[in-house]
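User: tokens in, sequence out, please.
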């Protein structure tokens, strides 16, 4: 680690941990969506919307602290990117749930459960990793595993698209389901961006 002569604003660590914990809560709501009935899905969507608003609050708190801090624990652009991408993950998960409710999708295709399982695991790893930003230690396994999970998510996504276009579904249903699986894939991509940002931070600070 580089030796610093100046003090650092440490509250960012708690703010990032809060944001990541909220992402983890959102991933658990996604898991609840599987196998739920229409009425339960509406309730899940309301809870997800509240979680997304909490994520916005966490992001705004980070940006406010960033704008008011003269000294930051690591580069400002990395703080901004990390906060923004954590917020993106929540937005994507909330959008997926909302689409399922708005489109009145009765049954999600096989493979969506695998997408959500990958997102839940990535969320767990991210929530575990954020507190370790304080020491910058034992983080390499985190970004390696999240990158592996994103590759797994890519394969699941491709198989889902192949399934959707194999003639089983009506064209309008394909359009609805494709939007859902695509936004879940965007969430997986965003998890990878978070992990890559953490790697960049660690490399810069080492």
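Assistant: Sequence out:
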């Amino acid at each position: 680690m580089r030796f610093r002569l100046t003090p650092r604003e440490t509250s960012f660590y708690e703010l990032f941990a809060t944001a990541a914990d909220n992402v983890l809560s959102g991933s658990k709501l996604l898991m609840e969506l599987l196998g739920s009935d229409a009425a339960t899905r509406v309730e899940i969507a309301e809870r997800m919307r509240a979680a997304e608003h909490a994520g916005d609050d966490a992001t705004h708190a980070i940006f406010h602290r960033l704008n008011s801090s003269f000294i930051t624990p690591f580069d400002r652009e990395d703080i901004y990117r990390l906060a923004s991408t954590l917020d993106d993950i929540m937005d994507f998960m909330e959008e997926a749930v909302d689409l399922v409710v708005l489109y009145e999708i009765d049954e999600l295709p096989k493979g969506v459960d695998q997408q959500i399982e990958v997102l839940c695991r990535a969320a767990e790893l991210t929530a575990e990793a954020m507190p370790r930003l304080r020491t910058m230690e034992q983080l390499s396994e985190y970004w390696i595993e999240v990158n592996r999970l994103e590759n797994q998510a890519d394969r699941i996504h491709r198989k889902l698209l192949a399934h959707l276009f194999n003639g089983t579904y009506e064209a309008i249903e394909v359009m609805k389901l494709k939007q859902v699986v695509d936004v879940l894939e965007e969430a997986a991509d965003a998890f990878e961006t978070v992990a890559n940002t953490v790697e960049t931070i660690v490399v810069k600070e080492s």
